[in-house]
Design goal:
Helices cover 40% and strands 13% of the residues. It is of the alpha/beta class and 466 residues long.
């Protein structure tokens, strides 16, 4: 489906303040989109799961980057405990303002996310929220039947519940130097009989919806949907990465990625509800280059840059919920406003965002989402922070450019190098990468991490020699 067909598919439009989209009116129980929608001046928008009738908030709470007691997240303070009091406050606010889909995993926050999530949610009636968690058996040590079963049982224990509303096979489609995607999938879920066991748990009522999150090879994605078509396995929902850049340019950002347009269309034509992850492309769409921010502010001066991406992700028909990993209360408040109610993207706005996407992919950034799956590095590199600093300098227009003899160039060069040292301690910088490739197989974005680290180190060394 091309962009014009997509716009036809998501409904008829007039102007941004007066929109009626069939995308948001496919069920009588869903929140209708009224005329003159103003962000944050109404109730949360909901979508209905056709499999269960669940009325799910369009904003889902991702418990991946929880706050810690020393401030920030575990990326800032790796040894700090989770700030349970703040997590409780944020969950309270979310539930009070209509957010009812809570997404976690056994591996999030160094294994502490499910525990913290369980404490926060147990203070509320069980029927007031939906829990989504994952079978995150990435390590070969968890591939045995008993180890995978134990992981699922431990999730129930940590979450203080007898059942999971949404259970995902976590991040399928990945490959390694030793295994192709299908071999790895079989090792994690088929050879050990765990997928069939999960189906049994669903039949027993311990799992209400069974699905998977996808990163990687389209052959496995197509195989999973073929199984669905044949009746071998029924997927109640699927989680994909989708944003206005990945819609057409995921394969440009990283060759092995699959465009979100393909993933969404294949799921939607089968009526499989879609959960969206990475609506901000790992935060990069909330920190756009100044020239893109200027374009957005000229159109809507008071609208946060991130809101464009969240509105885009929530607009299409068949999107069940859009996940956001919200560390800070201000992000939660802002995102609740975005979906209370949803102001769908119009055809004209969609065209604008496609132009923004074209400009974005021309930037030579690293497609890192700071998911931290590559960590820890055995040689101590802080890979996500290296990439984050480098990307920020590009998108904020802070890279040394122009005449290398000019004063402005040398000032920018000095700022870049000082900032690099301040953000990344010397022993954790890119020059310590030996190319062991241990990180590569863990990256959902399929980034050739050593190559990118060496590229950044070469650039830094070039600046130092000037």
């Amino acid at each position: 489906m091309d962009r014009r067909e997509f716009i036809k598919h998501i409904g008829a439009v007039t102007v941004a303040s007066s929109v009626v989209l069939s995308a948001c009116q496919s069920n009588d129980n869903e929140t209708p989109i009224a005329k003159n929608v103003i962000d944050g001046q109404g109730e949360m928008t909901y979508r209905t799961n056709p499999n269960t009738g669940d009325r799910v908030s369009l904003l889902g709470y991702g418990m991946m980057r929880l706050p810690v007691e020393e401030g920030g997240t575990l990326r800032d303070h790796p040894n700090s405990p989770i700030d349970q009091e703040l997590v409780n406050q944020e969950i309270d606010y979310a539930l009070e303002h209509g957010v009812n889909y809570i997404d976690t995993s056994p591996v999030y926050c160094k294994g502490m996310s499910e525990h913290a999530t369980g404490i926060a949610l147990a203070r509320h009636p069980r029927n007031s929220y939906y829990i989504a968690t994952k079978l995150s058996n990435f390590s070969p040590s968890t591939w045995s039947t008993e180890a995978s079963k134990t992981m699922f049982e431990n999730s129930l224990k940590e979450l203080q519940t007898d059942y999971v509303d949404y259970l995902l096979l976590h991040s399928i489609g990945g490959e390694s130097d030793e295994m192709d995607c299908m071999t790895m999938f079989n090792a994690r879920y088929m050879d050990n009989g765990i997928l069939d066991w999960l189906v049994e748990q669903k039949q027993a009522g311990r799992i209400r919806n069974l699905g998977f999150s996808f990163h990687g090879n389209p052959k496995l994605f197509d195989t999973m949907l073929q199984w669905h078509d044949e009746g071998r396995y029924h997927w109640d929902f699927v989680q994909i990465q989708m944003n206005y850049v990945d819609w057409n340019y995921a394969h440009v950002i990283e060759e092995e990625n699959v465009n979100a347009s393909y993933l969404y269309n294949e799921l939607h034509r089968r009526g499989i509800p879609v959960v969206i992850m990475e609506p901000l492309l790992g935060g990069r769409l909330a920190n756009q280059p100044d020239f893109i921010v200027k374009q957005m502010k000229e159109r809507e001066p008071e609208t946060p840059v991130a809101r464009w991406a969240f509105r885009y992700a929530g607009t299409p028909e068949g999107i069940l919920t859009v996940l956001s990993g919200m560390t800070y209360m201000e992000h939660l408040v802002q995102n609740v406003e975005t979906y209370s109610p949803l102001r769908p993207i119009t055809a004209e706005e969609d065209e604008f965002l496609m132009k923004v996407a074209e400009e974005f992919v021309e930037l030579k950034t690293v497609p890192c989402t700071s998911c931290n799956y590559c960590m820890p590095c055995p040689y101590g590199l802080n890979i996500p922070v290296i990439f984050s600093y480098y990307n920020a300098c590009i998108t904020e227009g802070k890279m040394p450019a122009g005449n290398t003899e000019a004063k402005a160039y040398h000032e920018a060069r000095k700022r870049f190098l000082i900032g690099y040292d301040r953000n990344v301690p010397s022993l954790r910088q890119a020059n310590h990468c030996i190319g062991c490739n241990q990180c590569v197989s863990h990256c959902p974005q399929k980034i050739d991490i050593p190559t990118e680290l060496h590229r950044i180190d070469d650039y830094v060394e070039q600046l130092k020699r000037m």
